[in-house]
Amino acid sequence: MAVNYGSRRTVVGAHYGTRDWLAQRVTAVLMALFTLVVLARVIFTKGPIGYDKWAGTFANQPMKALTFATIVGLLYHVWVGMRDVLMDYVKPVGVRLALQVVVIVWLVGCAGWAIQVLWRV
To answer: Whose CA is closest to 103, among 121, 68, 77, 69?
Structure first.
């Protein structure tokens, strides 16, 4: 006896679609806002911009918080993009998993390095 499932389509996969599409847009807006803030601070800085003024831009706590939020957003943005590219173009599951692990390790390392640089200023 055949089972009729009707017109409902069986959807497989991780169901990332809308959530990740929205996350990509939100993180892109966050990165654009951060870029505008940094550009405004650079444009309205008087005199030549040396290390002291550049480090001073990131020395106060609100700027560190904005920079950290942007770094987290950038890392998530990269992860969503790389995961989608790997899922679309790397068909062998073992190779795809290994590449995803490499990407995760790389992104965690970048996060650690960024935090170290940011809070050393």
So the answer is: 77
Q: Which fold has domain 17-120?
A: 3 helical TM bundles of succinate and fumarate reductases (1.20.1300)
What CA–CA distance (Å, rounded) separates 84 from 82?
A: 5
Give residue-wise pLDDT tens across range 54-73. 888 888 899 999 999 999 99
Sign of torsion over alpha carbons 16, 21, 23, 28: positive
pTM, two decimals, is 0.79
What residues does each domain of the chain span? 17-120
* The amino acid at 17: G
